[in-house]
From TrEMBL:
The keyword Signal does not apply. InterPro entries: DNA-bd_dom_put_sf, MerR-type_HTH_dom, MerR_fam, Redox-sen_tscrpt-act_SoxR, Tscrpt_reg_MerR_DNA-bd. One of its GO terms (molecular function) is DNA binding. NCBIfam families: SoxR. This is Redox-sensitive transcriptional activator SoxR.
């Protein structure tokens, strides 16, 4: 009878989660995951940690920052690994964030031609960076690019 493995070396965990060992060390340094150490000071990851690594990767894939992921994981009681119910809650929360990012990207896409289509570099007709032509009061040219590089009043 084969028993389930409870702890994995860093190489085994990395292979199972399809990440580099340096990624696991990085996640650990940021407090996202934890390991135990053997007497020889080698890392061992509990099997449940593999689920956390997978949650981190899924969240990163949709653009959630590591800081946001860490905050979300901190809401889990007793620092435990996420279960199905936790994943449902986190994924709903992150789905809302993803929807917001999608809406922002669609807005940028829809307005992109007005930003680069004018060819004047004055940003006068740019609905993304200068929606109400507020920058025109500061003079002609790429004001966002040259701001802070000397006095432009002549």
């Amino acid at each position: 009878m084969e028993t389930k493995k409870r702890f994995f070396t860093i190489g085994e965990a990395a292979k199972r989660c399809d990440v580099a060992t340096s990624t696991l060390r990085f996640y650990e340094s940021k407090g996202l995951i934890a390991s135990i150490r053997t007497h020889g000071n080698q890392r061992r990851y509990h099997a449940a940690t593999l689920r956390t690594i997978s949650v981190i990767r899924a969240a990163q894939k949709i653009g959630i920052s590591l800081e946001e992921i860490k905050d979300a994981l901190a809401t889990l009681p007793d620092n435990r690994q996420p279960n199905k119910k936790d994943w449902e809650r986190l994924s709903k929360q992150w789905a809302a964030t993803l929807d917001q990012k999608i809406n922002e990207m669609q807005r940028l896409r829809d307005n992109l031609d007005t930003c680069i289509g004018c060819g004047c570099l004055s940003l006068k007709s740019c609905r993304i960076f200068n929606p109400n032509d507020e920058i025109a009061a500061h003079g002609e040219g790429p004001r966002f690019l040259i701001e802070g590089f000397g006095d432009d009043s002549e």
